[in-house]
């Protein structure tokens, strides 16, 4: 492996943006210094005023392989990842077939990565009714935590859990110090839309904030009772911000993410029939989403993850425009960084905020914060070089996702990814893939093995 030095004016360190030289040796960050050492014999890469940041970590990605590779797959998802500066993903357990709720299914998922893992990847195990006995077997296999739904997941093989199921599982998960990720919607009132199925406002009213708020209240109670690390995925209801803030002030091991689409789009601007915007929970009104930004600013929301959940065109009901029948998921993996930066810079946020929300904090949830997510001596040399001042228009041709449907098509975004490094090796540069299949598997013990 060739030693490298990356010399730039905007190196994003835990102490802020600074001019620095980052030395990469044997896959690690060997040093962060003010100038190239006189005895350095490797190559020096000058990046000028582009930003060098720890690689983006996305712990909420649906790759869907094995079994539903026609939806996405490791090859396309992890190519999209390195094109977008994402150096670590954590794959969700529900959209593959079989679902990742047993040790045997986990083995099948690992086998499916062979020869097509272009970025680092870990895996969440699934928690469903009746699989409590599989929890410790999955932990032995190396899952980094567990994911559960409180409402129908959209996949019949991955049913939602009840409070009784959670009470059986949370003590086991807590014993191992792993997080339980929860899709928080409780459809207790059975509210269904009866109006125009093409109307976005009709769809929005069918999944009210109340569903989220009641589910989050339940998880806060159980988090306190069992002292189990609990993570609320894709928060969209601003009504739950204050209860979450109180829980955190009380010292509960509670973390929260929101998603790019809740920060970039607003319900008022979504056209009827445009089902590429459908997700669950839904994208809400501007006033609500402004409050999500303030919670992110205050640290009540810990970070941002894509919830990349693609599907074939027929499942998205693009022809009919039927929000009630369409698959609920937004494809955005490759665009994670520029979407967030475009929206954040308009609100006065800095590059250091992006590094915290996309790299440092997600590393903590995934259990890799002792070696990933920051530019620190001794950490893995997983890095992204990007230009915050350059913009581009999202086109289908530029996307590496299997399906090019995304509500971000034709949007002008700021933040062009120029280079991606995995373990100190350049794998992507200015639109070209330099090295593929360089990703590694990650387990909760942070023991990485070459795929």
What would you say this structure looks like, in words?
The protein is globular. The chain has 451 residues and is of the alpha/beta class. 26% of the residues lie in helices and 24% in strands. The protein has a domain at 56-366: TIM Barrel, CATH 3.20.20. It contains 11 helices and 19 strands. InterPro entries: Allantoinase, Amidohydro-rel, DHOase/Allantoinase_Hydrolase, Dihydroorotase_CS, Metal-dep_hydrolase_composite, Metal_Hydrolase.
Poorly predicted runs are 447-451
Overall CATH architecture of the domain at 56-366: Alpha-Beta Barrel
| Backbone shape | globular
CATH class division of the domain at 56-366: Alpha Beta
CATH superfamily of the domain at 56-366: Metal-dependent hydrolases
Report on the biggest sheet: 8 strands, mixed
* CATH topology annotation of the domain at 56-366: TIM Barrel
* Averaged pLDDT: 95
InterPro entries: Allantoinase (IPR017593), Amidohydro-rel (IPR006680), DHOase/Allantoinase_Hydrolase (IPR050138), Dihydroorotase_CS (IPR002195), Metal-dep_hydrolase_composite (IPR011059), Metal_Hydrolase (IPR032466)
EC number: 3.5.2.5
Cofactor: Zn(2+)
Protein name: allantoinase
Task: Please name the defining characteristics of this protein.
single chain; 451 residues; TIM Barrel; 19 strands; metal-binding; 24% strand; 6-stranded parallel beta sheet; 26% helix; allantoinase activity
């Amino acid at each position: 492996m060739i030693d490298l030095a990356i010399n730039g004016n905007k190196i994003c360190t835990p102490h802020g943006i600074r001019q620095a030289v980052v030395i990469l040796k044997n896959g690690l960050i060997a040093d962060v210094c003010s100038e190239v050492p006189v005895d350095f014999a490797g190559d020096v890469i000058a990046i000028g005023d582009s930003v060098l940041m720890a690689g983006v970590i996305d712990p909420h990605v649906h790759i869907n392989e094995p079994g539903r590779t026609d939806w996405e797959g490791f090859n396309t998802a992890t190519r999209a990842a390195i094109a977008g500066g994402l150096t670590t993903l954590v794959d969700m357990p529900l959209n593959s077939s079989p679902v990742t709720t047993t040790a045997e299914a986990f083995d099948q998922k690992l086998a499916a990565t062979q020869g097509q893992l272009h970025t680092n990847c870990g895996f969440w195990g699934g928690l469903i009714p009746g699989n409590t006995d599989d929890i410790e077997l999955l932990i032995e296999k190396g899952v980094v935590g567990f994911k559960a739904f409180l409402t129908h997941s959209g996949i019949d093989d991955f049913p939602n859990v009840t409070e009784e199921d959670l009470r059986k599982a949370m003590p086991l998960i807590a014993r191992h110090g792993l997080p339980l990720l929860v899709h928080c919607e409780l459809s207790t009132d059975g509210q269904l839309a009866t109006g125009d199925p093409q109307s976005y406002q009709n769809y929005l009213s069918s999944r009210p904030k109340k569903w989220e708020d009641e589910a989050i209240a339940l998880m806060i109670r159980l988090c306190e009772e069992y002292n189990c690390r609990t993570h609320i995925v894709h928060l969209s209801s601003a009504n739950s911000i204050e209860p979450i803030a109180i829980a955190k002030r009380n010292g509960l091991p509670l973390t929260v993410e929101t998603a790019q689409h809740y920060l970039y789009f607003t319900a008022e601007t979504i056209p009827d029939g445009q089902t590429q915007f459908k997700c669950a929970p839904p994208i809400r009104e501007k006033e609500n989403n402004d409050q999500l930004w303030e919670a992110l600013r205050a640290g009540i929301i810990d970070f941002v993850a894509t919830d990349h959940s693609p599907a074939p065109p027929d499942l998205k009901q693009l022809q009919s425009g039927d929000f009630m029948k369409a698959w609920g998921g937004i494809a955005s993996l490759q665009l994670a960084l520029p979407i967030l930066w475009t929206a954040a810079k308009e609100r006065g946020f800095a590059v250091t905020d992006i590094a915290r929300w996309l790299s440092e904090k997600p590393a903590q949830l995934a259990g890799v914060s002792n070696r990933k997510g920051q530019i620190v001596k001794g950490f893995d040399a997983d890095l992204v070089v990007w230009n915050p001042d350059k913009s581009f228009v999202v086109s289908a041709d530029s996307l590496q996702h299997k399906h090019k449907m995304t509500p971000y098509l034709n949007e002008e975004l700021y933040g062009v990814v120029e280079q991606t490094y995995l373990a100190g090796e350049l794998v992507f540069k200015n639109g070209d893939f330099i090295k593929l299949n360089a990703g590694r598997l990650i387990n909760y013990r942070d023991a990485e093995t070459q795929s």
